[in-house]
Recover the amino acids of this structure.
């Protein structure tokens, strides 16, 4: 175990912050969406019950409080990802929307990762990716980091190449470097694979792609919550992640973008709050980051995201990583011992807290149904990574994923469900 | 942990597991009169059916595909019922018939698995592009 130096998480104390565990469930689907502690729901409730109002507009006290909390989250996020300015932090509804933050001007709120990536594909891609130019993606990517680029390529006449994986489920760096020789306009890949847990060598890949002249977007949906990120050290142009996978609520995500890129981009959505002046003759847009945050935002959710960042920062990302590594190693070993079980992806030392597997003769959905009867929440399906499933030659896998609240006895419960399924299907 | 044996399992009943492990009428027909395949994009399950129809009667039927116990057992059970049935009668089979045949409580999350083979039958028999009513 490589926990030297890192504080250990007090998992029992952490679990007390999550009322959902009082129901007795074993929650092994945090890569899908995490659970939320009382600190997060409490911060949201405080807004809804005590200072619910719209931001940036009203001249009364509670609206000032709401604005301060909403914008205050941007500084928390900026520090969490080490963006240079909050102007680079754009809120989105999830990862797809969020990839941008060094200054808080670089921190843009979106609904999530999906919205963040769509924002970049639309507001940057349509203007900057031209016919015949190359976009490099990877076979490991989530649909949210594939489909927006396919739509862009179809619209602009660009081409897409996908970096393949090797037998361990790791990106083929030789092939990646060959593709870089063809001077791609854009390189987009995930920091961590949601389906296999593979931790990609993001820093090296960004450096190589930048050296080849590409603009680089990193999908941090599975990275920010588990590995953390330093966007300036990473050196990417865009970084997107979702709040709901890192203890925050659904509907609030973040896009970080390098300031000069964001400055040169046109808005994504337009309307209220993203303008300076609107005249019949034309409109001037607001400064960063608000240029990208049109309409009334998910205020309560962004405030909840701020509480989630505080919670994770309080634990320390080093300790979060160490805990997940310990659970993942334990689970990997326990699952390896089961006859007829196939594990996908790299060894536990090179993966995040995600384990995809299949059982001989038992479909993942049947396993998930049987596990559910034991109150074990397990994901079964293609994990929004159908190109990867096709590459692996399977239609679906079962997936267990872990977070700060996962305990070893929950892994034991999963093993029990697997054995129960094997007994029924023997 | 759940208790009990496979035989008294309320969901994975013995006959369902039997149809899953030993599917009836499994395979392909040469030169079928009707052939159709559907998938369930949520889980990647696939069911396809080939029909030989003579004088409006389904003389022979085979199914192929891959998927969970529920989708495959449901397809196997349906082919048993279809063999020798008039095509017009087959068109009248509805979702209650299929669920009744399965004889277990299907949760909303698994209903598409149970009805995938019915969708294949309906779209194949009517030549419809899609039949959302049966979902």
């Amino acid at each position: 175990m490589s926990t030297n130096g890192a504080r250990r998480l007090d998992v029992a104390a952490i679990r007390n912050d999550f009322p959902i565990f009082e129901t007795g469930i074993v929650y092994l689907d945090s890569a899908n969406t995490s659970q939320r502690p009382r600190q997060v729901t409490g911060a949201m409730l405080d807004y809804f019950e005590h200072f619910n109002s719209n931001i940036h507009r009203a001249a009364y006290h509670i609206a000032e409080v709401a604005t301060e909390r909403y914008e205050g989250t941007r500084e928390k996020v900026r520090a969490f990802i080490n963006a240079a300015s909050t102007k680079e932090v754009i809120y989105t509804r999830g990862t797809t929307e969020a990839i941008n933050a060094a200054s808080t001007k670089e921190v843009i709120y979106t609904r999530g990762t999906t919205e963040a990536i769509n924002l970049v594909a639309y507001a940057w891609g349509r203007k900057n990716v031209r016919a015949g130019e190359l976009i490099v993606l990877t076979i490991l990517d989530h649909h949210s980091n594939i489909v927006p680029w396919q739509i862009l390529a179809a619209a602009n006449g660009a081409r897409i190449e996908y970096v393949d994986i090797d037998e361990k489920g790791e990106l083929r760096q030789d092939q990646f470097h060959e593709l870089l020789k063809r001077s791609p306009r854009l390189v987009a890949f995930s920091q961590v694979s949601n389906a296999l847990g593979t931790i990609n060598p993001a820093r090296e890949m960004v450096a190589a792609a930048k050296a080849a002249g590409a603009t680089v977007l990193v999908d941090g949906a599975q990275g920010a919550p588990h590995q953390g990120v330093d966007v300036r050290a990473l050196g990417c142009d865009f970084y997107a992640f979702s709040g709901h996978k890192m203890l925050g609520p659904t509907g609030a995500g973040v896009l970080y973008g390098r300031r000069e890129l964001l400055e040169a981009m046109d808005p994504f959505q337009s309307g209220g709050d993203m303008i300076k002046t609107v005249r019949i003759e034309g409109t001037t847009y607001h400064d960063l980051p608000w240029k990208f945050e049109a309409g009334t935002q998910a205020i309560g959710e962004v405030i909840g995201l701020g509480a989630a960042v505080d919670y994770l920062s309080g634990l320390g990302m080093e300790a979060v990583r160490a805990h997940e590594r310990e659970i993942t190693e334990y689970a990997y070993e326990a699952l390896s011992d089961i006859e007829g079980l196939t594990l996908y992806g790299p060894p536990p030392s090179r993966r995040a807290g995600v384990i995809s597997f299949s059982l001989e003769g038992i479909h993942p959905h049947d396993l998930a149904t049987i596990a559910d009867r034991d109150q074990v929440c397990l994901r079964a399906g293609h994990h929004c990574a159908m190109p990867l499933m096709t590459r692996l030659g399977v239609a679906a896998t079962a997936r267990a994923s872990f977070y700060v609240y996962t305990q070893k006895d929950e892994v034991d419960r999963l093993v029990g469900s697997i054995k129960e399924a094997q007994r029924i299907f023997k | 942990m759940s208790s009990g044996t496979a035989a008294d399992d309320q969901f994975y009943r013995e006959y369902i597991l039997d149809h899953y492990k030993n599917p009836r009428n499994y395979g392909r027909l040469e030169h079928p009169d009707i052939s159709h395949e559907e998938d369930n994009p949520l889980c990647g399950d696939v069911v396809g059916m080939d029909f030989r129809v003579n004088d409006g009667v389904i003389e022979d039927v085979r199914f192929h595909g891959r998927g969970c116990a529920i989708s495959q057992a449901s397809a196997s059970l349906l082919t048993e019922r279809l063999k020798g049935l008039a095509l017009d009668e087959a068109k009248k089979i509805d979702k209650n018939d299929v669920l009744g045949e399965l004889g277990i409580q299907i949760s909303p999350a698994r209903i598409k698995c149970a009805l995938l083979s019915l969708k294949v039958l309906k779209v194949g028999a009517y030549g419809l592009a899609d039949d959302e009513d049966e979902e």
